[in-house]
Amino acid sequence: MSASFLTIAGRSFKSRFLLGTGKFKNKTDLSQSIVAGDCEIVTVALRRIDLERHEENILEYIPPEVTLLTNTSGARNAQEAVRIARLARSSGCGDWVKIEVINDSKYLLPDNNETVMATEILSAEGFVVLPYVTPDLYIARALVKAGAAAVMPLGSLIGSNQGLRTKELIRILINEIELPVIVDAGIGAPSQAAEAMEMGASAVLVNTAVASAQDPAGMARAFALAVDSGRLAFLSGLPLQRPTANASSPLTGFLYPS
Amino acid sequence: MRLVLPKAGGLGSSYKDIMNITINGTSQQIASTIDLSVLVQTFCPQSRHVLTELNGVIIPHDQRSDTFIKEGDVLELVAFVGGG
Description:
The complex is a heterodimer.
Chain A: E1 6-8, E2 11-13, E3 17-20, H1 27-36, E4 41-48, E5 67-71, H2 78-89, E6 96-99, H3 112-124, E7 128-133, H4 137-146, E8 152-153, H5 167-176, E9 182-184, H6 190-198, E10 203-206, H7 208-211, H8 216-236
Parallel strand pairs in A: 3-4, 3-10, 4-5, 5-6, 6-7, 7-8, 9-10
Antiparallel strand pairs in A: 1-2
Chain B: E1 3-4, E2 18-23, E3 26-31, H1 36-43, E4 51-54, E5 57-59, E6 74-82
Parallel strand pairs in B: 1-3, 2-6
Antiparallel strand pairs in B: 2-3, 4-5, 4-6
């Protein structure tokens, strides 16, 4: 079923469930969640090393076959995002980057314009760029022109678990943008992931809902199933909603004359 | 603040000069003959995948042993962490 593969920058993935690696209580929960969720792409971030205490190397908890997508979190403008992406690439761990440029600490909304600028610079340098944006058709078109490999619109505020508050704007991107549309941020339950996939999203990225679950690996599995379910529903063609009833069983020709 | 001196036999005996540099925003004193590779091993002995930026320039792994630290250098030592 080739239609069920997710293709980004020429690479195909069976899984349409991307996992963020932040906020996990321990690294074992993280590894088990990656496996339980069949995740093939996970996000990581970069931070200054704390010289006073030993910190675990997160890469040791991510299976080597998994594609790393470095998040530029912490960047407040395009230049900082570019700097983080270049540093990440110097690790030799690949050149896939999620551009996240945030200036606002209350809502953590991405700065779309700076994100387009960073996308343009990094795409020209050969990075595979997945920009995280507030869904907007014009910005998405600018990202296509700038060389993005996918567009990652937010469903709702980061870590809010509010689900698809931007659903109709994301639907426009799905309908109008040729690139994969990966719903990122705010997805707090498997049903919300399924909702995004039923609408035709190419994939979803989840972090908080898995990392903060009582059983993260169980929740990762639940998300993987929901994503597959939603995708299959989309491919199978969902029926239109109607304002009135439409009987599923014959209503005439049995006990009562019609 | 900590003093980083090369181990005996490692970088010779000319470590009488001590330099002040900044690592991750903090002042540090190190021996003047130290190269970046040794410095990373000293400050991050257990961390693999340490990324380095010296005075705003990224220094890849394979260039660290040829990169010597100078007085006043500003060094960033960065690693991968969990993120969404």
